[in-house]
């Protein structure tokens, strides 16, 4: 029985995700041995600075991928929203498991009751988020809010919130749920109030191209509906040539077993203008095995991106 080595960052959330994948693999065969290989990434080393100062693209994935390419690991587990949309030579996205909730959430300091909407936040409230996507969407609704950079593990960010550094904090529901912080959610920020990042809530499992033995194990964790949805979302970013830190939100949802609907928005950094586009694809999932459905998902994302470009999206992607 083979030993499968999973490369992962050593953050709390990354380790939860890697252990989730390890347990899922072990459930396929109790005799399978799965080990974790801890990797420190650029994003982990530069906690005090905004990620966009370091290029943004791949700051949480590059070193994890290197562990695969150098043969120190067999599988890389990523938060899919952090994985660049341009494939890395020698690697392939072998599986995307079922997705967690895609929405963002507003957290308030301990002892504060949750607002019914963002409109009820105090004027000029300081909101902790370093994401240009979240910042732009907040400012679209509340131009008076002050968005401040916040980095670190979830517990570190929440501790800063409770210490009074912020009046509110924006985090992904998926991460909060995975680490047991759901009780701190004051308000769910779902579309159309706030659109998530491409791939938010999903995991991406990479393997070396040609490592068929490992790919056979990993591919059993694939969720077809999730894969098609996130591929469509990521195709929007790829066509726009936008990184994961661009002010772009996109959400693909299944309206029926055969209808995938994709929406995307691009917002001026100060929230003053919003570009929006949407489209749908239809077809049975039985097409998936031939690759036709994946091609259709990519085309769906590209079409939505071109609709944004026709509205002048390029001026916000410099």
TrEMBL record:
Superkingdom of source: Bacteria
Ranges for domain Porphobilinogen deaminase C-terminal: 228-309
Cofactor: dipyrromethane
Any GO molecular function: hydroxymethylbilane synthase activity
Porphobilinogen deaminase N-terminal domain boundaries: 4-214
GO BP, sorted A to Z: protoporphyrinogen IX biosynthetic process
EC numbers on record: 2.5.1.61
Catalytic activity: 4 porphobilinogen + H2O = hydroxymethylbilane + 4 NH4(+)
SUPFAM superfamilies named among the record's database cross-references: Periplasmic binding protein-like II, Porphobilinogen deaminase (hydroxymethylbilane synthase), C-terminal domain
Modified residues (S-(dipyrrolylmethanemethyl)cysteine): 244
Cofactor comment: Binds 1 dipyrromethane group covalently.
Pathway(s) the chain acts in: Porphyrin-containing compound metabolism; protoporphyrin-IX biosynthesis; coproporphyrinogen-III from 5-aminolevulinate: step 2/4
Gene Ontology CC entries for this record: cytoplasm
UniProt KW keywords: Porphyrin biosynthesis, Transferase
Pfam families, per the entry: Porphobil_deam (PF01379), Porphobil_deamC (PF03900)
NCBIfam families: hemC (TIGR00212)
Miscellaneous remark of the record: The porphobilinogen subunits are added to the dipyrromethane group.
Purpose: Tetrapolymerization of the monopyrrole PBG into the hydroxymethylbilane pre-uroporphyrinogen in several discrete steps.
Family membership noted in the UniProt record: Belongs to the HMBS family.
Matches recorded under HAMAP family: Porphobil_deam
Subunit-level organization: Monomer.
Protein name from the UniProt record: Porphobilinogen deaminase
Annotated source species: Planctopirus limnophila (strain ATCC 43296 / DSM 3776 / IFAM 1008 / Mu 290)
Organism ancestry: Bacteria, Pseudomonadati, Planctomycetota, Planctomycetia, Planctomycetales
């Amino acid at each position: 029985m083979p030993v499968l080595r999973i490369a992962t960052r050593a953050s709390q959330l990354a380790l939860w995700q890697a252990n989730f994948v390890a347990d899922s693999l072990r459930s396929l065969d109790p005799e399978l041995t799965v080990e974790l290989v801890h990797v420190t990434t650029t994003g982990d080393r530069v906690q005090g600075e905004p990620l966009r100062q370091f290029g943004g693209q791949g700051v949480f994935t590059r070193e994890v991928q290197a562990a695969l390419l150098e043969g120190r690991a067999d599988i890389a587990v990523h938060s899919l929203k952090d994985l660049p949309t341009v494939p890395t030579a020698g690697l392939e996205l072998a599986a995307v498991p079922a997705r967690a909730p895609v929405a963002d959430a507003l957290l308030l300091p301990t002892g504060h009751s949750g607002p019914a909407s963002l409109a009820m936040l105090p004027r000029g409230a300081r909101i902790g988020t370093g994401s240009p996507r979240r910042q732009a969407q907040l400012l679209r609704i509340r131009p008076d809010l002050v968005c401040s950079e916040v980095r670190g593990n979830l517990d570190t960010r929440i501790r800063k919130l409770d210490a009074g550094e912020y009046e509110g904090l924006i985090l992904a529901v998926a991460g909060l749920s995975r680490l047991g912080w759901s009780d701190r959610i004051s308000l769910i920020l779902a579309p159309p109030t706030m659109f998530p990042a491409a791939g938010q809530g999903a995991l991406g499992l990479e393997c070396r191209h040609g490592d068929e033995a490992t790919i056979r194990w990993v591919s059993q964790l694939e969720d077809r509906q999730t894969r098609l949805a996130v591929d469509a979302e990521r195709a929007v970013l790829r066509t726009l040539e936008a990184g994961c830190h661009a002010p772009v939100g996109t959400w693909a949802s299944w309206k029926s077993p055969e209808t995938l609907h994709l929406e995307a928005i691009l917002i001026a950094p100060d929230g003053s203008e919003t570009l929006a586009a949407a489209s749908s694809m239809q077809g049975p999932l039985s097409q998936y095995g031939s690759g036709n459905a994946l091609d259709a998902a990519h085309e769906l994302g590209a079409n939505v991106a071109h609709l944004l470009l026709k509205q002048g999206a390029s001026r916000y992607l410099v």
